[in-house]
Amino acid sequence: MQTSNEAVLTFDNVAKSFGGVHAVAGLSFSAVAGETLAILGPSGCGKTTTLRLIAGFEEPDIGTIAIGRESMIGKRPYERNVGLLFQHYALFPHMSVRENVAYGLKYRKWPKAEISSRVDEMLRLVQLEDFGGRRPQQLSGGQQQRVALARVLATKPKLVLLDEPLSALDAKLREELGAELKRILTEVGSTTIVVTHDQDEAMSLADRIIVMNRGGIDQQGSPSEIYSRPATRFVATFIGRSNWIGGTLKLNHSGGFANVVMESGTVLTTGNPGLGDEVAVKVGIRPERIAIVGTQEDDRMSGANQFPAMVVNAISMGAENHYHVICSAGTLMVVEPGGRGMSFSRGDRVKIGFRAEDCVLFPSRDAA
Amino acid sequence: MTGRRADDLIRFTCKAMNCLIILFLLTPIAVTTLMAFDARDYLGPLPPPALSLRWFSAFFSDSYFLNGLITSVKLACLSVTISLFAGVATAYAVDRARFRGKEALVSFFLSPLVVPPVVTGFALLLFLSKIGVIDGFARLLCGHIIITVPYTIRATLASISGIDKSYTEAALILGANERHAFWDITLPLARTGIVSGAIFAFAVSMDDVAVSIMLTDAKTYTLPIALISSMRANFNLSIAAASVMLMAMTILLIVLLEKLVGLNRAIGQGTFR
User: Fold this and answer.
1) How far apart are CA B105 and CA B94, in angstroms?
2) Is the minimum CB–CB distance between B73 and chain A shorter than 8 Å?
3) Which domain holds residue B71?
4) Chain B residues in contact with A92 (beta carbon < 8 A)
5) Using CB atoms within 10 A as the burial measure, which of A147, A224, B118, B175 is most buried?
6) What pLDDT shows up at residue A67?
7) Interatomic CA distance for residues A342 and A334, integer angstroms
8) What Cα–Cα distance (Å) separates residue B82 from each residue in A223, A321, B144, B149?
9) What is the CATH number of the domain that holds B202?
């Protein structure tokens, strides 16, 4: 794995529109050598355009894109030394697995013998040594993906792009191949950009995530940063689950905390987000950050916000237990680790609590 | 109950209609085939008392027919080759282009299918004599390119536009330039469409009368034209023999097409008129 902090990919104020509609605007970010960067966002957020701009299938209207120190403006895809793993792999159906993997090397004018040994090496890397003579159609989805990856990595690209790499696979395979993909990418030490709408895919593969929304960047950071400290209401809603509680912010100048007064008069204690007094806000709280205990053991409860509640719905999801509880703060979803049966059932009186630090606040006018 | 009986009646009528249509289509062909093998040297009542290949040998010993056959084959090969290049180039360009009126342009390329062939032939005859092209073969070649090119464009366009764009993009990002990607990816993947277009174009060229009849001269004429004029002059059964051979060729082409593409797919792509 490379450790230098040299930028392999740099976007500087890039904009691209199609027929007057902005796909991306004012986009600036960089990827450093050896890292896996995920570009995450819903469909229409501009992530696919970003990918196509990096690959050279589209040219930016304004701004610059550089790979290493070299500007990519005006460079055709075949002049960029970028590898792209297509969402549906795009393995050439009329060529064997070997011919597919060798394809890029042929146009890099490698000698025949070296191509052959490189193809062997790549097929070994993806553990498909015995499949060289097959046609792509004769392979399973997971095998096809590994062939496509071998084809991408064979030419030693400076930058590897993965377009929704796990989305075409079924749920069981997804986890297994995600881990396999991570292993291979780490082994070759490539700088990788994963473009995806699937947060699990981004979280499991990436060292760093860029969350895109409406053609721009809402937040960049490590997966845990983005999950626990979302920068915008959009990020907080898009990544993971949240309970949202509406109210009015009342600043109190003691200890950096604030109060949010709900319409019902219930008061929540939250962190101080740096918003003005009397601003209408939405308070977000992750369901797994809410503790739930029986009424007789409420002395175990800590945290600034504690409410008596009643369970209105209890669902076992196997690994997790989901509760919907009603309390003076509204109906909230609570998640606790499962596997040892349900602690509560419908109609139980309980107590819930969460810490001020676990609340995130955004002005109500911000779009979710 | 009555509803069910009505349904049965409709179903029976449909079946009967089908049988009638098949009979209507096949009977003349069956009669012609039978007559081609008739051993008598006059047109007698069916069935013929004895069979022979005499009309086939009469056909091949007639230099008038042979001349037409050779011209037809030469013409078909040459016009299909030219149409194929034009068709592939057009289809590739149309598929890549993004502009308004693209649909209209495609319809324009296919217009020879809608313009009556007699009109095409007559217009071409006037135009070519105006610009001084009087050679029979050159005139026929022009006519046959016009009638065959819609078939090659249509079949090629259908298969080229059916190719997932990510194949070409994959080739480009792996280091192939646009030309390489065309030869390595587009052409092989469009092969079935190109071949079926060529086969249809060949059959159309071999079979054409309406355009050719306008453009023939005394020395250069196609087989269908030779058959028609000899039928007027002195009717004999070598025409039936020629028909049987044309049919055999068509069947051969259909079998070939079926083997290469699957006829249903070729028709499904709208290659037939």
Assistant:
1) 9
2) no
3) 61-268
4) 167, 170-171, 184-185
5) A147
6) 93
7) 13
8) 60, 71, 10, 8
9) 1.10.3720.10
Q: How many domains, in total, are found in chain B? A: 1
Q: Is B194 on the interface with A (CB under 8 A)?
A: no
Please give the residue of chain B at the shortest CA–CA distance from A80.
Answer: B173
Query: Are A358 and A219 members of one domain?
Result: no
Contacts of A179 (CB under 8 A, 6+ apart): A204
Residue A176, φ and ψ in degrees, nearest 5: -65, -45
Give the whole-angstrom CA distance, residue A219 versus residue A232.
8
The type of residue at B240 is: A
The CA distances from residue B56 to B45, B60, B233, B242, in Å, are: 20, 6, 19, 7
Q: Residue B272: what pLDDT?
A: 36
The answer to whether B173 contacts A80, with C-beta atoms less than 8 Å apart, is yes
**Closest chain A residue to B168, measured at CA:** A90
Asked if residue A2 is part of any domain, the answer here is: no
DSSP state of A118: H
Beta bridge partner(s), residue A30: A10
What number is the ipTM of this complex?
Answer: 0.85
pLDDT tens, position by position, A284-334: 999 999 999 888 776 667 778 889 999 999 999 888 999 999 998 889 999
Distance CA A220, CA A210 (A): 4
Nearest-5° Cα angle at A58, A189 to A95? 65
pLDDT for position A255:
64
Collect contacts of A64-70 with beta carbons under 8 A, ≥24 apart. A64/A10, A64/A11, A64/A12, A64/A13, A64/A14, A65/A9, A65/A10, A65/A11, A65/A12, A65/A14, A66/A7, A66/A9, A66/A10, A66/A12, A67/A8, A67/A9, A67/A158, A67/A159, A68/A6, A68/A8, A68/A158
CB atoms B174 and A107 under 8 Å: yes
- DSSP tag of B184: I
Q: Assess B179–A contact: CB distance below 8 Å, yes or no.
A: no
Per the listing, tokens 């050439």 go with A92
Whether residue B254 lies inside any domain: the answer is yes
Helices (H), chain A: 47-55, 97-106, 112-125, 141-154, 171-188, 199-205, 223-228, 233-238
